[in-house]
Write a structure and sequence with these properties.
The complex is a heterodimer of chains A (about 550) and B (about 800).
Chain A (H helix, E strand, L loop, with lengths): L1 H14 L4 H10 L9 H15 L3 H14 L6 H14 L3 H14 L4 H16 L4 H17 L9 H16 L3 H14 L4 H16 L3 H12 L5 E2 L13 E2 L7 E2 H22 L8 E4 L9 E6 L5 E5 L4 E5 L5 E6 L3 E6 L5 E5 L3 E3 L4 E3 L15 E6 L5 E5 L5 E4 L5 E4 L7 E6 L5 E5 L4 E5 L6 E6 L6 E6 L5 E5 L4 E5 L5 E5 L2 E3 L2 E2 L3 E6 L5 E5 L5 E4 L1
Parallel strand pairs in A: 1-3
Antiparallel strand pairs in A: 4-29, 5-6, 6-7, 7-8, 9-10, 10-11, 11-12, 13-14, 14-15, 15-16, 17-18, 18-19, 19-20, 21-22, 22-23, 23-24, 25-26, 27-28, 28-29
Helix pairs in contact in A: 3-4, 4-5, 5-6, 5-7, 6-7, 7-8, 7-9, 8-9, 9-10, 9-11, 10-11, 11-12, 11-13, 12-13
Chain B lengths: L15 H7 L7 H4 L35 H15 L3 H18 L6 H21 L2 H14 L8 H22 E9 L4 E4 L2 E2 L7 E4 L1 E8 L3 E2 L1 E7 L4 E7 L1 E2 L3 E4 L1 E2 L4 E4 L2 E5 L3 H8 L34 E4 L4 E8 L6 E7 L4 E3 L3 E2 L5 E6 L6 E4 L2 E3 L9 E5 L2 E9 L4 E9 L4 E5 L3 E10 L3 H18 L3 E4 L6 H5 L4 H6 L5 H11 L4 E6 L8 E8 L8 E6 L8 H6 L6 E4 L2 E4 L8 E5 L4 H4 L7 E5 L2 E2 L3 H9 L6 E7 L5 E6 L1 E4 L14 H14 L5 H16 L3 H12 L8 E3 L1 H15 L4 H12 L3 E3 L9 H10 L15
Helix pairs in contact in B: 3-4, 3-5, 4-5, 5-6, 5-7, 6-7, 16-17, 17-18, 17-19, 18-19, 19-20, 20-21
The chains are: A alpha+beta (about 550), B alpha+beta (about 800).
Amino acid sequence: MRRHLRAARCRSAERLGEIVCALVLAALLSAPIAMAQDPAAQRLFDESDRLLAGDQQEQALDTLRLLLRQFPNDELSPRALLRVARLERSLGDVSSARASLERLIGEYGRTPQAASAFVDKAEMQLEAARGSADLEAVRTTYRRIPLLYGADVYPRLAARSQARLESARLGLLLGDLEGAIAELVPALEDEPASLATGRIRLLLGQALLLQGRLEQGLDELQRLVDDPSPVGDGAAAPQASASDLAAADTPIATSTADDRRHAARLISLAHRHMVRPRSGAARFARVLRWPSAGPTLREPIAVATSPNGEILVVDDELPAAVLLDAAGSPMRSATVEDVESAGMTSDGTAVVVTDRELILPFEGQRLNFLQPRSGREAPLRGMRAAARGPFGDWFVVARGWRGVLDYKSRREGQELLSSTRPEFVDVERDELGRIYLLDAENERLVRLGIDRRSVDPVVLGQNWRRPAAFALDALGQVYVLDARQRTVTLYDRRGRQIEVFGPNLGDGIELRKPRDVAVDASGRLLIADASTPFLIVLD
Amino acid sequence: MTMARSSSRRFGFVAPAVVLLAAAPVALMPWIAEPAAAQLGQPGQIEVEDLAAPPAGPSAEPDVDAIDRPRIAALHAAALSAEATEPEAALELYDRVLAALDLLSTEGLEATDRQLALDAGARAARLHDEFGEDPEAEAQLRRLIELVPGADTDSSALAELLGDRLRPVFKRLRDRMVGEIAFALEPPDADVRIDGRRTTSTLEPIAVLAGDRTLEIRRAGYAPIIRPLEVAAGQRATLELELERQTPVLRLATRPAGALVLLDGEPRGSTIEPTAALTDAGQSSTNDTPPPALDRPERPTTTAPGFLADGMSAELIFEVAEFGLRRLEVRAEGFRPYSAELQILEPIDYRMPPIVLEPEGGTLVLSGVPSDAVLKIDGDVVQPEVPGASRSRLPLPPGDYLATVEQGSSTRMFSARVQIADRQTVELPVVLRPGLAFLGVAGGSGAIRDSVAQRLRQLVDTSDDWAWIDRTDGGTGLLDRLGLSPPRLRIGSDVDWSALQERLDREAPGLLYLLAVGSDDPLAPSVELLLLPAVPGPAVPSRLALDLGGRSDGGLFPQVLRREITLQRPWIGALWIDSDAEDHPVIAAVTPASPADDAGLRPGERVVAVDGATVSSAGELGDRLQATEPGTSVELLVRNVGPDRSVQVQVGVGAWAAIAERATPLGRVPAAAWATLTVASAESESANRWLLDLQRARLLIDAGRRDEDAAAEAAGILQSVRGPQTSHGYGQAAVDYWTGVAFETAGPRYRQQALEAYRRAAAVPDARMTHPDGPWIAPRAEARLRALGSPDQSAGASPGSE
């Protein structure tokens, strides 16, 4: 029957154009079946544990390689080889890591670790991806995992759930919303309960909201918030169970606290921007002045938010970068000067952009770049804004540069899109990792194509006077700040103007020198106005 | 025909049968102990293997009872067969036949014995005659006459056997050796022996060897006569003898044979089977006179067969030493004892009427037995007096029994131990419960195994929802036979659960199988329990732990044994959410024509309080509404633009079965959930059966992710399920959706059926998947369609697709 299933999957794979399937299957079928465990191998593996705990990665790597040489057919060998590949990758030896993963797939193809090797391989492909074709290739790698490691043989396989989730995420990145949902639904229903369940539901809820299915998306997200299972530890990735018997006594955690918080913020966002308008209510019911307690600001000029709800405000007068929690209370601050803009990466790292460098104020780090194609090591000047792309690139807009500068590293930069004669004044990244640019010259907001050679218009400005900054929310809505008109205009994900806020925001607050705009994860609109000694929050 | 003799052949060949016979000690069994004489010409025609050596011991006397008449007949047949080709061997065999019959003659030869003796003797004599051995031939004829004095050449058979040459020799010898005596005895049925040999009958004159003999006449109740008897050759004498009556005699026969007879408490013998009695005592045990009434004993008359019918024993005859009132008792195991008072007044024969003992026993009445149920007593199928009746009467001998009623191959069963006493009727109301088959404890020490089994039994019995069936086959017998070692069971991946399931269904049926796996560590705090449902349940065992520390509640195991299924829950038809922007739950959607809709609730409104109690989260609101009784109304304080308003909402009923959800104890143990649902579905006659079957199918679908057959089974179940037709909420669209999932899981060959089912589900935009507030079906069905590559999936595509 298993052969039959595999054959069936092969047919499916062929339908998808995955001709590699047969080759990989052949590798799987030639993989070792019966493996013993040698105590000496166990001792070596334990030793690698000890070395890793002591942060002796290279020694651990040597130990694991010794294990593989001496006990190539041991039960621990695939685990050791996966660990080797990951260590090689973390030590920067990408080619060795890739070779180790290929060896794992080729020699131990029937083990759960081989499925994890596919995932790792896909991650490495993703890191090197430069265009939509690369992303499609990565997605294909992910899609191959459920085909090769079906639930009939591997009932509980974390790598399979992860692959389905990541494939759907890539689908969203590639704009294939329907395809992503088509992957998420079977993943949610067919995979055994695990921490991946919550992540899949979170992405499905978000995708349904993006699809315009408000109730259905909210329903999924609220289910995640109300998840009756124990709160899982996000750090402990679900592993393949040694037994195929599902233990019933210990309830399985199907979501982490972060997943639930993220879902709650998405619900709030949808409530503000979808439910309230449908019931005739205003999106924002009040205007707040933040920080809600403690020291006040003097001249806020930049604001950014993180997915976890934290808010970064830069004050030109203090001069400082202040980190607020989701309720507007100051958490920490650091001195920064001559700030152009602020941002927060997807992992919540605060970034301040100055004319010459990127400052990570709470990490004590500074980054600067060399001018692309200058032929000499000329430092980049005139930086206005920066955002970190999904693969670790920095996208920088700077005065004197028409296009957007894409830095893979400090030295490896290239100018993109200069031929369109834009004047980019701001750059942001959305939740999926896509890069958006505000083109003041052409009065439009564009999304950088996956191939990085073209742009997709998102919003075409009408009567913009001086667009200075913009923000994105998880529903794909865009908020464009016009410094001259002293307004923030809201556009839906199709670029249709929805509402204009300002100059008068009510409650005695009027925009006078608006400099920056941001939206927090729960949909509150945050405006940094240099004329007000506080951050303006539309809640 | 003259046959050449060769003495060298006498000991030359030994047939297998002869070897067997010769193995017996010579001194003890002379009739078979002599060395084999000759080769049997056609041993294949002689069933020599049947001639097994009779038992014998060093000190054993020749045992007449041990002389088997069939064996003698076989010897005779062998002799006949060998006569033509191996006359030496035939002579030896005839000799043995005669020797054996000689031994039998002490207690009197039967007619067949006599016929056999005549045949063997005459044939042996004729063989000697043919060899020209005249003295041996004459000696053989003399031996024949000694054995059967009544033999006469008037018998045409004997005359023909002897032939013309020997016939006159025989007649001459007989005239010289035999005289005749006519007896006139009183009583006529007295036992007559001459020289210790019982005579066949004294009603006619009998032939007796001439010479001085000893006459012995005995009869129960009479003084014996023992006297010398002179018999003159060739003459007939008449003896008129009357025995002197001394004591009364009691004669009785019983059914069954083998009953112990006591008189005044003293054992007087046991009745025996009539055949044995005839062999042993000739015709003395029968009487054709109708038996007298018990209270009117009378003098017996003639002897004739009378008690052979109806399984009666042979007649037991014994003397009664004293007159007066005597107490007779007859006892046999398993029968009620018989007793009677007898008035013994004179020295006559008292014949009891046939004593038919009644078997001991009581009656077990099982009430409420379904007509298709199978009744078992101690594991054996039994038929009640009136098959198919709801009150089944089972007559049973006294004893302890395990009474079992099974319906549908142990799907539901009743089991109880019952003690039946003689003449007692025990009535048991039958409550059929699903059968939980305990397979045993693998691994662990013997003490732990016993204690685990005991604990499990206790928990199951306490639950009162399952019938415990011990299928351990004596300890771990069944597990050992199935090759289920603890390591295999712990990992489980190399066990073919499906095959095991089918084998268990055949060999140890139950609806749910339970086995425990002990740890190698004697200090382990728990053992693992594995639960596996019967076919066609999912062939995926559920694993849970049994605490050995004596947790009072028993953990999860007893919880999952409670067959409580909730099929309804309160429902108002609204989706509420938590928003950071509000202090109270927000209504995000309202189902058309639902209680919430009827009450005027609208999306965007906040629910501030339920029945006066403030609620601050969606979870809190849900908990409060779930705590209400369907059919009652709740008061919601609702906030929107303007002042807060109070709304009365009539709480409705939503179809719901949470047991397939992992949030419930039963949902975490799919094996038990399946069994529980199966029972509930079989018992349910309500409109909720669709819900139960849908849950069963979902469990199979989960199992089907590993086993296509299970998914196909699920699809089969779902195709016969008809859910409520509704444009919103939980109904047929859910059935259609899960049908699609089942077909999709069952494999590519069911793709078309899966597509059709998904299309039907996608056509109901407001349908819900697991209950009235469950996930929406349509987007999922559309996603499934797309994943399957349906060309028309775009029909239900989203409004906002990129």
